[in-house]
Specification:
Blueprint lengths: L12 H20 L12 H6 L11 H11 L22 H13 L9 H17 L6 E5 L2 H16 L4 H4 L8 E6 L5 H8 L7 E4 L9 H13 L3 E8 L11 H11 L2 E6 L23 E4 L5 E5 L6
Length: 314
């Protein structure tokens, strides 16, 4: 009876090492020559047909798989790695970030817990973000898959904090009042989707008009809040935006914070585009008031974080 060890390791490490070096060289060449290519290339029918084939039923060697990727993927990217890509704000990341992703995959740690260096590094990055935003050391935070999820984490905590019941135990049907969230009419669509997912419904988000600079109209915001109070609806959270998707507008965070304090409302900041202006010496004043938020979603576009103040209810 054979005792052959089952493993996912390569059969030939030296052959794999050679191909890995080839991949790195190709990647550097792909980025180094990006200015010599067009921003975007239409996929020919032959390439589209490649992505319409049935699931493979036999193994393939790594060289074959990489050849397919090099021929059918890399020439037909979105275009955002090109310096003349002006479609929207999406960045291209960086080569050092790609190397970091590679090393993180090699380490393979599960960061849900554990006494590991990777978990300590995860916490350290969150601590750095707290320091950059002016949050206290007692605040908490987590790294997420993207800005939409970071905002959803914050809205979950805002809902739990303002529900009036232990919503984790009792559920949203036990809430004594419907909750209302407020954001400018320039806010990202992920906020409505988050509230739908949390069981509050799209109507729980009030769209507040903006001024001539696409900033939330503070007078209109307060009017919406008082109208809801009169109607028996509980104002739960105001979402201030630091860098809207459409124009990069920045809401008046100090004014929003003052209103939130007045009416005891959770103050969340969606800073996934502009929060890191806070570390720019000449422009940090544009984010004044961000340190007053109960929660922040921020995105350096290699990872995303949700920060929560020290009084968060998880």
């Amino acid at each position: 009876m054979s005792n052959i060890e089952e493993t996912l390791d390569p059969e030939d490490w030296e052959r794999t090492r050679k191909l890995a070096h080839e991949m790195i060289d190709d990647a550097i060449g792909h980025l180094d020559t990006v200015r010599e290519r067009g921003v975007w290339n239409e996929m020919p029918d032959t390439v589209r047909a490649h992505f319409d084939t049935s699931v493979p039923t036999a193994p393939q060697d790594l060289e074959t798989v990489y050849k397919e990727l090099r021929e059918n993927l890399l020439p037909y990217s979105m275009g955002n790695i090109h310096p003349r890509f002006w479609g929207w704000y999406m960045g291209s990341g960086s080569f050092t970030g790609a190397l970091g992703d590679f090393l993180a995959a090699v380490d393979g740690s599960n960061l849900g817990g554990g006494n590991t260096a990777a978990a300590a590094m995860d916490s350290q990055v969150v601590d750095w973000f707290k320091e950059m935003m002016g949050f206290p050391a007692t605040a908490s935070g987590t790294l997420t898959s993207g800005g939409s999820m970071a905002n959803m984490v914050a809205h979950t905590i805002a809902r739990n904090a303002k529900a009036g019941v232990n919503v984790r135990e009792e559920g949203i049907l036990a809430m004594p009042q419907p909750l209302r969230f407020y954001a400018s009419d320039q806010v990202h669509s992920c906020h409505q989707k988050a509230l739908e997912t949390l069981g509050l419904g799209a109507k729980s988000l009030t769209s507040v008009p903006t001024d001539d600079h696409q900033r939330m109209d503070i007078t209109a915001l307060e009017q919406a809040i008082t109208d809801d109070i009169s109607a028996g609806i509980k104002p739960a959270c105001v979402i201030g935006t630091v860098g809207t998707t459409n124009t990069g507008a920045l809401d008046d965070l100090n004014a929003i914070a003052k209103l939130c304090q007045k009416y005891e409302i959770w103050f969340h900041v969606d800073g996934c585009i502009g929060a890191f202006l806070r570390i720019a010496p000449k422009h940090r004043h544009l984010c004044d008031g961000i340190e007053l938020a109960d929660s922040i979603a921020l995105d350096p576009h290699c990872l995303t974080s949700a920060l929560m103040g020290p009084n968060s209810v998880i």
